[in-house]
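Subject: Predicted fold for Tyrosine decarboxylase, 614 residues

User T.R. writes:
Posting the sequence so we have a shared reference for the thread.
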Amino acid sequence: MNSEEFRQRGKEMVDYIADYLDTIEERRVTPAIEPGYLRRLVPDEAPQKPEQWEDIMKDVEDKIMPGVTHWQHPRFHAYFPAGDSYPSLLGEMLGNGLGCIGFSWAASPACTELETIVLDWLGKMVGLPEQFLSFSENSKGGGVIQGSASECVFVSMLAARAHTIRQLKKQHPFVEEGVLLSKMMAYCSKEAHSCVEKAAMMAFVKLRILEPDENQSLRGATLQQVMQEDRAMGLVPFYVETTLGTTSCCSFDNLAEIGPVCEEFGAWLHVDGAYAGSSFICPELRGPMRGIEYASSFNFNPNKFMLTHFDCSLMWVRDRFKLTQALVVDPLYLQHSYSEKSIDYRHWGIPLSRRFRALKIWFVVRSFGIEGLQKYIRDHCRLARRFEAHVRKEPRFEVASPVHLGLVCFRLRGTNDINQKLLSSINASGKLHMVPASLNDKYVIRFCVCRQTATEEDIDYAWEVIRQFATDVQETKPEIIENYSQLKKPVEAEEEVVKAERVRKQDASLQYKRSFFVRMVSDPKIYNPKIVRSLPSNNPRRHTTSESSEDSNVSINSPTIDLDVLEELMQRSDLKEVLQEAKNKDRRALIKKTTSDLSERILVAPSVSQEPEH
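User M.O. replies:
I've generated the structure tokens; pasting them so everyone works from the same file.
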């Protein structure tokens, strides 16, 4: 394709996209296909010779579109919004057209400098303290564009881990880093995104998952109690992940309470505002931000609630040097003469290569202005309250959690089964698309305002569909359900046996695949708060305070090991091969010898049979 044909095809593509979005409501919101549908429609081998563009676009409509879930559809109310706007789309087009790879300032100065500028713009727009901004006087902070909130969580955890190990090495210069790592503990709420657990697995650190309060909010007292317990056991609390706008119900952890606790224990506080963060450009919605000054890092996704296309997750740190020290790799071929005077974003994240993503943010902010973006967010909040009002007027339904921003969690009064049946029926019809969540062991349905141009008519239509299906579900005659159940019993009995065996195998496999450090804090047979060992009181040890005034004291106690538990763990784990070599030897002696390399002293609990505290 040459430039002349590109001009023609590019104009055709713009028309195709505009027509698609203008007529999207004519399509079914979710595809009526089954897994593997496309495999039968596409050839087994790639074409040897060029194909006509018309044929390619015909296949898009005939083969691809039937399998697309239409996230911009007015009947799509699942998950969270997928950012979409014409200015963002044009920014993506230009960025891809320029084709620069901005891993350093020298690789593309405008790519780096615009990213720094727009991150300061957005930081000011959402009310971040000045220490998070690049151009504030005497600031050590700054912002960077990452690929996703998951990436932000992982990168911040790596930075916290590296910083804590540096501090512990000052206190214990002769202790191996692996031993120090084994004592580090991270924390998050049960309502935190699953990416936190994945990050802990990849960072090879322990993770303790905490219970939130009745409003699904993690509180400071809960965190403080478990941190005290862990410190008494000789563990090192080093990282706390909090969420502003959880996935299940858009709840908010209490930063004002959690922040001082993190400061007391010297733990890195990361704040994930993936969905809700964009809403803080509205001053009246910034209440949950109280306490943000305690945070070490913060992120939110304009690709969720600020009309910007994926991928685009913005991350700020209060001390950029703590972040880059964990990630710097500096081969000669990437160095340049302006390294001391500029930012090289290759040191701020995992990938080396970086797209010119700042362009689409720049286009969006300039095209809508702060006022236009505020109007969009407030409209979504207003429409969510309209849906909430519908739910509250209908005695059959209940609102399952406090309503925040554009998300409403509701349910039909009754059992979890009837709510599951209701949602399954609605989604199967293709008239709406929603997803469930579990709150306090109750099956709830999430209704999220997603479309950029959503209207009151869209909300009213969705409620009427829900009411109609609820009536159908409730009016199903009990005897029909009973007869249907009787017919299914023989088949279900056989299916249950197969299912149980499959689940057992999956659980057994998962037990070994998941990180031991993640499993450790959730398995009472391994994690036993009754086993406590502290350094002698006459030999207190505190780490050396670093140059940064933000560094807090971190203490580490001698390792504590339960031999019976460890032996059981080794028998269940991949270390069986090691034990096989000692088949005819004393296994306890082998365990003792192996673990002695990790600690000078080993303590066996006086009574292993005692019930562990939780």
